[in-house]
Amino acid sequence: MSSHSANQASGHADAAWWKRIRRRGDQIGIPCVFMRAGTSRGAFLREEDLPADPGLREKLILAIYGSPDFRQIDGLGGATSLTSKVAIIGPPTRPDADVDYTFGQVRIDEARVDFKGNCGNISSGIGPFAIEEGLVPAAGPVTAVRIHLTNSRALLVAEVPVADGICPVQGDARVAGVPGSGAPIVLDWADVGGTLGRGLLPTGRVRECLSTATGEIEVSIVDAGNVTAFVRPSDLGFRAPEFPTQRFDADALARIEAVRDAAALRLGMIEPGQRAADVTPTIPKLYMVDAPYDYVDANGRSVAASDYDLLGRGMSMGTPHAAYAGTVAVCTGAAALIDGTLVNEVARPPGRRGGRLRIGHPMGILDIDARVGQAGSAPILERAAVVRTARRIMEGIVYVPMNRLS
Asked: Domain of life, per the record (predicted)?
């Protein structure tokens, strides 16, 4: 379809959308389900309830969240990157999927929604949402939902417990960073190795030195779930157990963003002179990895070095990640199994070839079951399973002032 035809089709679709949309005085209402999924939270919206025009859709989502505003006081946003995420769910556009899912990271103090990359935590809510919305029929005590990740054109399989057509939320599964326990949702990310289309090692190297604005630094760039640049904390001026938990100071943020700039340039995601924060703020991810240490998590609990295999800390939209990104857990699990990467160097036990990897992060420990094989000389992801929990918090109508859409 030509761009002119596509614009015409979008215009016709949005004319119909305006006619059927709910109105309340000078506001419009959109059906919305508000969910906690993993360690994140956000609005789950059906594609059919949104305008087709990308610009109008972005304005609508920003208004739903109350962005741009550092408090997001006039919307559903929680003023953190983990509570400023949106999921759009619609019918599948590939034959091996049950639903399409588009993830958006809603900027807090900018009028922007970034649809690059993915969120492993929000992804855990897609299966329950699809089943309870009638998009996928419940089949047996555990229903497998095949989710097309439109951001990366990959397939995620979620195994969701079901009872009488409803997804239970009570169970024994625990997710570090979420109070209590819940019903286990198993996510298998085996298809997300190489989201950029260049395999697990998109630069062809297990590690390399990048020239940054603040000096050279050794990195391992691995692509599974979300493409991630892994570095040693000491190379960024941090002592492993003492990573910042609230915010980076200006110098630390400059060093981190300089590495992201260099990695994005190496991957061809930005041009010379551009900044990753401006062009691609969510990917590549930047995570620091080190050997296990004893530390105290954000809830004041002691975590012994013997309880986990790898220490990991990362950033989310310029601030320290409060837990550990689900997609980066997938990437970490894969990287730990590739000889020569910085992750493989520090992960315990050395020489591991598969199985459970325990990642120590600010909220506790995250487990991933990963397996990497070989296709010729290239490593391939064969399994990457993570257990998450999710819960429907609210369903109803979210209202948006009409002048926010102009």
From this structure: Bacteria
Interatomic CA distance for residues 122 and 237, integer angstroms = 31
Judge whether 14-184+391-404 and 208-388 match in fold: yes
Q: What string of pLDDT tens digits covers the 406 residues of the chain?
A: 444 444 555 666 789 899 999 999 999 999 999 999 999 999 999 999 999 999 999 999 999 999 999 999 999 999 999 999 999 999 999 999 999 999 999 999 999 999 988 999 999 999 999 999 999 999 889 999 999 999 999 999 999 999 998 999 999 999 999 999 999 999 999 999 999 999 999 999 999 999 998 889 999 999 999 999 999 999 988 876 566 666 677 888 888 999 999 999 999 999 999 999 999 999 999 999 999 999 999 889 999 999 999 999 998 777 788 889 999 999 999 999 999 999 999 998 765 667 899 999 999 999 999 999 999 999 999 999 999 999 999 999 999 999 999 8
Q: Distance between CA 99 and CA 111 in Å, rounded?
A: 28
- Asked if 103 contacts 115 with a C-beta cutoff of 8 angstroms, the reply is yes
Please state whether the predicted TM-score (pTM) of the whole model is above 0.85.
yes
How many whole angstroms separate alpha carbon 402 and alpha carbon 26?
6
Topology annotation, domain 208-388: Diaminopimelate Epimerase; Chain A, domain 1 (3.10.310)
